Structure of Argininosuccinate synthase:
Amino acid sequence: MSERVVLAYSGGLDTSVAIPYLAEQTGGEVIAVALDLGQGGEDMNVIRERALACGAVESIVVDAKEEFARDFCVPALQANALYMDRYPLVSGLSRPLIVKHLVAAARQFGGTVVSHGCTGKGNDQVRFEAGLSALHPELKVIAPARDYAWTRDKAIAFAEEKGLPIEVSAKSPYSIDQNLWGRAVETGFLEDIWNGPIEDLYDYTADPAQPREADEVVVTFAGGVPVALDGRALTPFQIIDEMNKRAGAQGIGRIDMVEDRLVGIKSREVYEAPAAIALITAHMELENVTVERDLARFKRSVDQRWGELVYDGLWFSPLKGALDAFIADAQQHVSGDIRLRMHAGQAVVTGRRSGASLYSYDLATYDTGDTFDQSLAKGFVELWSLPSKIAAMRDRAQG
């Protein structure tokens, strides 16, 4: 029985060329699987037809926008997930969802091999293959760019030789990956880390230096899930989509960083994530209002580890599942409204209200009506300081 190869298909040159190339290499049939993750760009039906024209026996397009927002972006928001305290996991979040649908297609069509377009020096090869190992370990994996040293020049020559219906003349200087949660740009002149980014790099965000009126928005959360904007009930996808437009128009969410890749190298990346940055800002502030101190302190370390696991391709790992349970429990009181003022590249919290608030005006105020018993503070401070005081006295006695 010949192989059936399930290909993660983007519609671009590399994965289009991979269809006939994989068929030649394996002697089998290729099933192309493309996902709409809110990335915009070409019509998904055009992408589906292109895969068939390139020789795929089946071409599947999945509208996964709502699923991506609900099951991947919202958990990242609840974890305040920022890798290295800056990057909101734009690519790391999408890969496990793609893997889920690749496995579903393999089961539906009797696939024995899965293929992706990743190189051997990036993070995504790990994310795809670690996910596949967790969900369907029997599947074999072929990565043409990595396993067969498949370069862009070879891909162009092969496309011309086969007369494939794809545009191969234009070559973008950048490598771009985008979805609902944000946009990642690398390579080209950015590989010299002294070069500053230019305005042409950006698509999701306007220049924050340009004059414009500020935009004020009220984000409503229920159990850590965004459920409304300015009092309008919306799905997570609709909220993220609208916030991408509104925060993006204010130039919010631009990130230029050198990050630590999983494979051991440092890489310069430029990101745009307007909705992600604005919503994480709002969510973190609501947690400040509603989550008890020690739980909040511990959750910050959990959030960091959660983001590292997702970045490292371990979405389906036991530890990630355990941390999911902790984070879900910590969200039970994270309900209320946060008012954001978005302007000049920044999202600034200007108001907070919650029925689950732990903030007490009567305890916090210094004016008349203060209910905090300051007479208790003297003894508290003495007892709190006692271990350090005793240690200092010992050290002095010992010279």
Summary: The two ends are 82 Å apart (CA to CA).
